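Replying to the earlier thread about multi-chain prediction with a worked example.

Input:
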Amino acid sequence: MLDINIIRQKPEWVKEQVARRNDTAPIEAIVAGDNRRREILQEVEQLRRQRNEASKQIGRWLGSLKKLTTDLQRAEAGQDVGQPVAGLRTQVMAMQANADQAKEETGQLGDRIDALTEELRQVEAELRQNMLWVPNIPHPTTPTGPDESHNVHHDPQGAAIPRFDFTPKPHWELGPQLGMIDFERGVKISGSRFYLLRGWGSRLQRALIQFMLDFHGNQHGYTEMYPPFIVRAQNFEAAGQLPKFFDNIYRDAEEDFMLLGTAEIALTNVHRDEILDEAALPIQYVAYTPCFRREKMSAGKDVRGIKRGHQFDKVEMYQFVHPDKSYETLEQMKQHAVDICEALGFPYRLVELATGDISYAAAKTYDIEIWAAGCGEWLEVSSISNCEDFQARRANVKFRPADGGKIQFVHTLNASGLALPRVMIGLIENNQQADGSIIVPEVLRPYLGGAELIK
RNA sequence: GGAGGGAUGGCCGAGUGGACGAUGGCAACGGUCUUGAAAACCGUAGUGGGUGCAAGCUCACCGGGGGUUCGAAUCCCUCUCCCUCCGCCA
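Result:
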């Protein structure tokens, strides 16, 4: 969610920024709705103020009325209350008439308030819906371009691209050959884009998950989290996945539950509706979760192997930081992801995503791609984004400055650390030997009972 | 799944139709006292919206939504969540 003030003050500029992303947003409707909202608000608040005052007056009258009535009853019973019965009777009747008339008038005020409130509710609901359809403003340093072809690829780093004196096989041949991946039976169970990891395949993935969690926890200061994998729609909205990506989400037919497409969605909401102390920042979380995606938008793409499935595992880093620190943090998180690539011995390269390719909630995103020798491709294993205050606004996560300054929104960042299937592909394909066996990277051996070779 | 009890400010906890944005306590912050600290005492303090250069004024918010009423933290309906007991189950 953007700050409505930015749209109010610079609608044309916002439109340009959205256009940079090759996207559109209902800016005109938002400006109109915002104006209408304030108009109604002022009117309805004025009326409410009148009603509040009138109600208080009625309360006072009814209080006096009660006392006078008591006096009247006592006077009628012959007690001396300091006033004659007739005078009291007149006062009681006058007071009652005042109160009745005021009730009548204030009731009419109430009717107008109700009507205006109803309109206000509609205007606000529509305004909010429109606001949800405005993507984040890209950072000035995000390369401008309508699609991924404008992404900026940096030179390869890390390990050298492996050379073989035989033709390296793709993982979809090596995996089944080594009994690590069973495509046929995965499809039998759940259909296309599903597979079964088996034996070393399953163990290798588990080892990787554990290694990554340990590494980020111990080396980079992240607190490990285990979130629910099934969450309410509200969480998706806060993270910026809804309303736009409804079609890509697996949903429960009966209840308001959705399956995570990434741990980022759950982690964004850990501190929803909280005001954090500045001293608590940065908050760093790392979580392993499976990720479920319909992949409707990628129909027919990457159907071979385990590169793109409806279910995959990922270790995700997430941070809540001070707004002044978020770009510094972005670089650090990029490094945290790179460190895993280094530790596993991958050739990798950095990609700066263009405005047309960054995710809806992001202002700036880096991708990290590793080289996979068998399929001969650079595979995206990590995406590192600074969402600035976009998600924080939707999730309502703020902090109280230590110097007593105004409460403000935190910035949030997310980074894959890393996505498992593609790491598996890289390991299998890059570390293969002529006899089809696979060398296990040293850092993983402690997690695999010391095994050096998969064969 | 059945029965009952709850949800109030950072925390605890009063308040059951009218001056209540809400008594009180704790924690926090500022001050007095002290060589310093503690204790004691005095004082300040919620969030969001609208408007205004500002001071301010004003509206809303007592788990969410709806209703009754001139007026709702308070009454009614409903949803969510928490607790207790029973049943069932990995």
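Chain A is about 45% helix and 20% strand.

Feel free to reuse this layout for your own posts.
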